[in-house]
Design a protein that fits this description.
Elements (H helix, E strand, L loop, with lengths): L5 E4 L2 E9 L2 H9 L1 H4 L15 E6 L22 E11 L3 E8 L1 E12 L2 E9 L4 H22 L7 H15 L12
Antiparallel strand pairs: 1-2, 2-7, 3-4, 4-5, 5-6, 6-7
Helix pairs in contact: 3-4
């Protein structure tokens, strides 16, 4: 299951992945900084409502494949920090938090058992414009692919080459996606 994310309402992107379980293992890869840094971003997270979250993105470290950083991201060669606040935490099924990077968005991770596998649904809300939808959609698609690689014991795919290829795909797919109204979604 490597389907693209979809816009389910203005400013809201949803992407699903069926991952190898058990659910506690997938939860650990979402919540534990040392595991999370292998596919998304490291950094501390207080797993309680009102808890602080700091995500330290270092995309070049997600895969052993060494590759050139695209020109548009070279200013972030040393990584990027996103802060937020945990809104809900219901282990091992639900984590919702704000992400603050320029604007305040909201990310929710929902996990459910599907036999020996785990359905992970990531919903990213309050995406203000088309560029943000495209960047977030292609970003989640890439990061979740790396998570699937890690959980399956495969060498993680290269981040930048994968992300760059997906940007064009998401730009085409989301060309007519509804956008959030100011202050909405």
């Amino acid at each position: 299951m490597d389907e693209p994310g979809v816009v389910t309402e203005p400013g809201k992107l949803r992407i699903e992945r069926l991952l190898p379980g058990p659910i506690e293992r997938v939860w650990a890869y979402i919540t534990e900084p040392e595991k999370r840094r292998l596919w998304l971003a490291g950094g501390p997270m207080e797993l309680k409502a009102g808890g602080r979250a700091t995500l330290q993105f270092r995309h070049a470290e997600l895969s052993p494949t060494k590759e050139e950083i695209p020109e548009r991201y070279k200013a972030k060669v040393n990584g990027q920090v996103v802060t937020g606040t945990v809104l809900r935490c219901e282990p091992p099924h639900l984590l919702s938090l704000t992400w603050e990077y320029g604007s305040k968005t909201e990310v929710t991770f929902e996990l459910s058992k599907q036999g020996d596998e785990v359905l992970l649904v990531v919903t990213h809300r309050r995406l203000a414009d088309r560029d943000m939808l495209i960047g977030v959609g292609s970003g989640w698609h890439t990061h979740l692919g790396i998570l699937a690689d890690r959980l399956s014991g495969r060498t993680p795919r290269p981040f930048w080459a994968t992300h760059e290829a997906l940007i064009g795909d998401y730009a085409r797919r989301l060309a007519d996606a509804p956008l959030a109204q100011a202050g909405g979604a």
